[in-house]
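Bench log, entry 3. Co-assembly request; chain sequences pasted below exactly as received.
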Amino acid sequence: MRTSPNRLVATIFGAVYLVVGLLGFAYTGGVGFVATKGGLILGIFEVNPLHNIAHLLIGAALLIAGLTRVAAAKAVNTTVGAVYLLLGIVGFFLVGTGANILALNTPDHFLHLVSAIVLLGVGLGAEKTVRSSSAVA
Amino acid sequence: MTGVAVGEATGVPVSAVTRAWLAVAALGAGLLHAALAASAPLPAAIVLATFAAVELGWAVAAFLRDRPPFFRAALVAALVPVGAWAVVATVGATSEAGTILALSPLPLGVAALLDVAVAGTIAVVLRRAKPVTANAGALRFVLALLLSAAAVCAVTIPALGLTDAGVAAVDVHLQHEGHH
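Structure output for the full assembly:
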């Protein structure tokens, strides 16, 4: 794994997002499932239960892909990175509106854009010769 | 993967770490120019949208391809938005109708800073023009990408908040709060 940027990033980000997803439930007691105002993880990152579940699913997908094959890690990194980039840009304009069903705040956007750049960067820019049928790294 | 790419038609080696930094910086500048274009007067909007499209396209291409596209030309092209801003600001300051001065100066300044960083990095690579490490290593590449992304987002996101699009988002937020 240490020789594969895609597996390294997928595993680390997957583990972190899983922990954040679990930790989020400690801060969202009494918060509506899709409430636009949520609880603050570490007093910084705003989340609601839907946001926590999204973190858990994304973390699980990244971790599983990172622990299996380079091709899987590359595909999941690229996909999640693209989704985060879209969320980082679109979500910026949803703050405070009824459409903000993930209770996003500015620190969330920072985290999403950094995640998007790193995930897309390794997904698109690293291990370009890897195909879906490639061997395990 | 993390080896050495060669600047297109230049023969200049460009490491994957450097390529990642160039792509991330161009992406940040492109996002800012796109946000500024959304609320700029039409002539300025067209120019800013063109800058954004070129920067975002070049950033994605730099990630996708082993060779950063138009590597030598990018050195000059990265400085075009800076020059354009300087010219328009000078003209606007000396005339009654300085339309572009209505745009937030900080986001324009941050975008210019990122463009200068891209141009500076390309200049250093072209000047150095010597073989770089054949394999940067997975961890080094990932760390470089992470630090580049954090640094660019740290200046880009506050600047995005100062664009009219960002201010509009905050205004909607306040109106929304006011109804409750």
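Residues 5-125 of chain A form one domain. Strands of chain A lie at 39-41, 45-47.
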